[in-house]
Amino acid sequence: PLTADLPVSAALAPVPPLVIKSGMQGASRTGRWKVPAKITAHGGMAGVRLDFTRVECALPEVEIEAYGEMAGVTIVVPEGWWVDSDDVDPGVGGLRNKTFHPETRLPGTPLLRVTGKGGMAGITIRYPNFLERRRLEKAKGQ
């Protein structure tokens, strides 16, 4: 009650949940963006891509609800992050979690808990590929 009327610092303010739907054009969240505690992604007709490789996330855990639908959902995470996808219903499109086991998780990195359904196109969780790693290295050098 004593601090209820004080302004909240922008750095400490909670980020509202993110709902991202692809529709006919596709949708993505890439580059530097503020990660909320809950994300819902609908693959729709053109797919969704969530790229966590350039984000700074102080949250210990992020919940991602993914629905592959017709075009799928792709989640790209930095090396050292771990993604728990045990509660995903693979559907027809399946689930491909190419991240490693929990013991490879680096200290201070968030745990991503993925739930939802693969739908027709599925859900893919992976580390950056060769070209993405090259772009990240170039961005660090600038």
Order of strands, widest sheet: 1-3-5-9-7
The amount of beta strand, in percent, is 25-35%
> Helix proportion of residues, in percent?
under 10%
Structural class estimated from helices and strands: mainly beta
The overall strand count is 10
Number of domains: 1
Distance between the termini: 46 Å
Element string (H = helix, E = strand): EEEEEEEEEEH
Q: Identify the overall geometry.
A: globular
The Rg value, from CA coordinates, equals: 16 Å
Total of DSSP H or I helical runs spanning 4+ residues: 1
Question: What is the averaged pLDDT score?
Answer: 90
Largest sheet: 5 strands, parallel
Low-confidence stretches: none
Please, could you describe this protein's structure?
The chain is mostly beta strands and 142 residues long. It has one domain (18-141). 8% of the residues lie in helices and 35% in strands. The chain contains 1 helix and 10 strands; from the N terminus they run ββββββββββα. The protein has a 5-stranded parallel sheet with strand order 1-3-5-9-7, with no helix packed on it. Strands 2-4-6-10-8 form a 5-stranded parallel sheet, with no helix packed on it. The longest helix has 12 residues, at 130-141. It is globular. The model has no long low-confidence stretch (mean pLDDT 90).
